[in-house]
Write a structure and sequence with these properties.
Blueprint lengths: L1 H22 L3 H24 L13 H29 L14 H33 L8 H21 L13 H23 L8 H20 L2 E3 L7 E3 L3 H36 L6 H15 L14 H27 L7 H4 L1 H24 L1 H7 L3 H30 L8 H34 L11 H7 L1 H31 L14
Antiparallel strand pairs: 1-2
């Protein structure tokens, strides 16, 4: 009976999406309606072909969806890094904004494609896959909801495709990290609720009484991102058959909401979620318990209570009242303490196992990611201070800060998690080549240093040139002067991107060969005690 209901709903959806594609008021809306229709039609055919199959009772962990997430993470990572490297060269050499790409492949269209590919496609798939893996192992329970996990995976990646195609067609809300239009946001909301249900259902059905700290970090990321996404994307569609919408809030209220969302997207998507990854995979790879479990609990509660207040520091010297931006600045400085508590906890987990840094390039990658987490969470509060912000804001210093965190913290901990997960998920005794992991480590590390250092130099130089005045109080430098002065550092930044991209490609090859060639170990499908 359930299959008949699904087929009826899917059939009606195919017809409705076809009508939307036919009557859509703009080209991008029609393209997206066709994508929805194709995805729904494929689901309809799959459901129809498997409707009568007798399915054995599920046993063990649901690892198929985790494997799919690992593959998607690696592939989307290469795509995101490739686009980022290309637009870095576009900034260094504007002639790469080719005439035939205008309107689709110029910097303005590709930049949000890059940010969404690395944050939401690469980072999001890593978080979904790793959270599904961790919550099952630490709960000693199969992922709740049957095929709900697969719906989350395919639904989330459909969101990525819709967002990416929308960017190159110019369909965005023009909000940082929240560019997709209203109907794509609605779809993501549905997928995210399903994600929360699958994660919470697994915790509710757990066989292990204790809820491990990594699950608290993952849960805070899921719940808070849901709240941020809904509030920041409150819009009124111009037409139900068009892609355009009007924001409910405007002016400084919209700016405040945007950066409450934007900074907490960093705080909960790129920090809390990846800390869940750190608190599971670092101890597992090091084969040591967390240095201080009590500190991890303090880290969690301090982080989630303080981070949510820090967003206004993005709006110093704007129409936002001073008290509001000062509040954000104060909470940002306070945030330094729990952040470093977490960094110390991660690093000290290696107590008694520091020798592994010489022999295990995977743990080396994880440790340097925690180091970058510490550096970024010192630099961020420092840059939020009003006097420092007057120099750094609107400059490339901010770009250097973001990428030292994103490439160093998020990228490296994800790479480490992938190197741990692939042998575990495909039942391999080891990785194909630790030597290739070492190559990846050094290429990525040197790439980050080149990127971040060049942006720190050019950002501070840019800020100083903007505020330089002559004896009569007139500005010395035109904006074009700063652009010309930055060119050498832009070339260095692009070369850093090439190194980081090369490392990611080596990783993909290594993971592929691990699945194909590494020695097989005994199959472990039964649910072991919580680990």
């Amino acid at each position: 009976m359930w299959n008949y209901i699904k087929l009826a709903v899917l059939g009606v959806a195919v017809i409705l999406f076809g009508l939307a594609a036919n009557y859509g008021r703009d080209f991008a809306y029609q393209v997206h309606a066709l994508i929805f229709m194709a995805a729904t039609a494929i689901t309809f055919i799959y459901t129809l072909r498997t409707a009568g199959d007798v399915k054995p009772a599920p046993t063990g962990y649901l690892d198929g969806v985790v494997r799919a997430g690992v593959i998607a993470t690696a592939l989307w990572g290469v795509v995101g890094f490739l686009v980022g490297t290309f637009i870095a060269f576009q900034l260094a050499f504007p002639q790469l904004n080719f005439e035939f790409l205008q309107g689709h492949g110029n910097f303005g269209r590709l930049r949000p494609l890059h940010t969404s590919a690395v944050i939401f496609a690469f980072g999001g798939n890593a978080l979904i896959a790793s959270s599904f893996y961790v919550v099952q192992r630490t709960s000693a329970s199969r992922l709740w909801g049957g095929n709900l996990g697969w719906f989350v995976f395919w639904g989330y990646n459909l969101f990525i495709v819709l967002a990416a195609t929308g960017y190159v067609m110019g369909v965005t809300q023009s909000k940082e990290y929240a560019e997709p239009e209203w109907y794509v946001d609605l779809w993501l909301t549905i997928v995210w609720v399903a994600y929360l249900m699958a994660f919470m259902g697994t915790i509710f059905t757990r066989k292990e009484k204790h809820i491990y700290v990594a699950n608290w970090f993952y849960l805070s990321f899921i719940v808070t991102i849901a709240m941020l996404h809904i509030v920041n994307n409150l819009v009124i569609p111009v037409s139900i058959l068009g892609s355009r919408s009007v924001m409910v809030m405007s002016g400084v209220q919209d700016a405040m909401t945007q950066w409450w969302y934007g900074h907490n997207a960093v705080g909960f998507f790129l920090t809390a979620g990846f800390l869940g990854m750190m608190y599971y995979f670092v101890p597992k790879q090091a084969e040591r318990p967390v240095f201080s479990y009590k500190l991890s609990i303090i880290h969690f509660w301090a982080l989630i209570f303080i981070y949510i207040w820090a967003g206004p520091h993005h709006l110093h010297y704007t129409a936002l009242p001073d008290w509001a931006s000062t509040l954000g600045m104060v909470f940002s400085v306070i945030l330094w303490m729990p952040s470093w508590g977490g960094m110390i906890n991660g690093l000290m987990t290696l107590s008694g196992a520091w020798d592994k840094l010489r022999t295990d390039p995977v743990i080396r990658m994880m440790v340097i990611s925690v180091g970058f987490y510490g550096m970024s969470t010192f630099e961020g509060p420092m840059m939020s201070i009003r006097a420092v912000n007057s120099l750094s804001h609107y400059t490339d210093w901010t770009i250097g800060h973001v990428h030292s965190g994103a490439l160093g913290w998020n990228g490296m901990i994800t790479f480490g998690a992938l190197y741990y997960l692939v042998p575990a998920l495909w039942n391999r005794q080891r990785l194909y080549s630790l030597g290739l992991v070492s190559w990846h480590f050094w290429l990525a590390t040197i790439g980050i240093v080149l990127y971040a250092a060049s942006m720190w130099v050019t950002g501070i130089m840019e800020g100083l040139m903007w505020r330089e005045v002559d004896s009569q109080g007139f500005l010395v430098n035109a904006f074009a002067d700063t652009v010309a002065a930055k060119h050498p550092m832009y070339v260095v930044r692009a070369m850093g991107g090439v190194l980081y991209l090369t490392g990611a490609i080596i990783m993909c090859y290594n993971l592929y060969m691990t699945v194909r060639r590494a020695p097989v170990k005994a199959d472990e499908t039964a649910m072991a005690p919580a680990e």
